[in-house]
Amino acid sequence: MAAGSSLYKDDPTIADDAQLWRRIPPWHIVDDKNVGGKRISKAAFEDHPDGSPMSVVLGGLVLELGRTAESVVADHAGFCLASVTAGFARSLNQGVVRRPLVEEPAHAEVFGKKTESVRRRFAREAVWVIAPEQ
Amino acid sequence: MNAASTLYRPRASTMLISEQDVPRTAAEDSWHGLTLTLDEAPPLVMPFGEGEFVIRPRPDNWIVPALQKVSELGFLPPNWNSYGARPIRPEIAQVAIGLLLNVLLPGDPLPAVVPTARGGIMLEWHEAGVDLEIDIRSPNVIHVWLEYDGRSEEIEQASVQEIADRLNSLRSRTM
Asked: What domain count does chain B have?
């Protein structure tokens, strides 16, 4: 699914500097002795197995709604939270669209083909919002 | 390389490593002063989901922690990543175990064992300036990514020999 797919249209109201937060399960945080710390596996950045685009939440909207980053991982023990910007996603030929859910009004989707390179770039460029314990 | 065989079967035990695999002491092998000689160590039995893997011959202890990590993935529930991830498939785990047993050598660094949302397994090494990722997507599709010294290489459907060769890049820098 390319960013220009007719099924999905990139939402220009989501600014390039908007933070896209994604939950990272503990199994996707691995040791990186090259940098002397932890890294996110590229396995953390995939579309849904059912083929729907990769889920994120709009970090700014979460805060506007009076919530905290911790609320996004509240029901997921051991999970961390990582962030990339919408502009970075777009630079990888991805698009971003709002998909509010009853249980998560800040839910959005990142659509576009998740090639090896794209997934690796997401994993490398993501910054921690809620970091793992070192 | 080891000529290991890995069998997946319905589980007979709920223990991580079954009682029959606990090494016996000399006293246990001795009865009324007679020492029993066992031809072969018992196989390693590791539960995985509804079944268990039986690995013969019993692997050396140095590689067991990596095998146990594979075993643990068998108990990830559906939606383990909170984004609809599937349980890890036993046939993928069997390939992962086979790779670990057949391409790693004593002294090699053990990989991170990482589940993927589609039910696969990745083996990852990030050390000695090398990033090596083996992505087992199906029993017949193993993707390899290797990066070091500013160069990268990608193999869409790697053979066991190609994987062993890429592991040499890491091995040569860690020994």
From this structure: 1
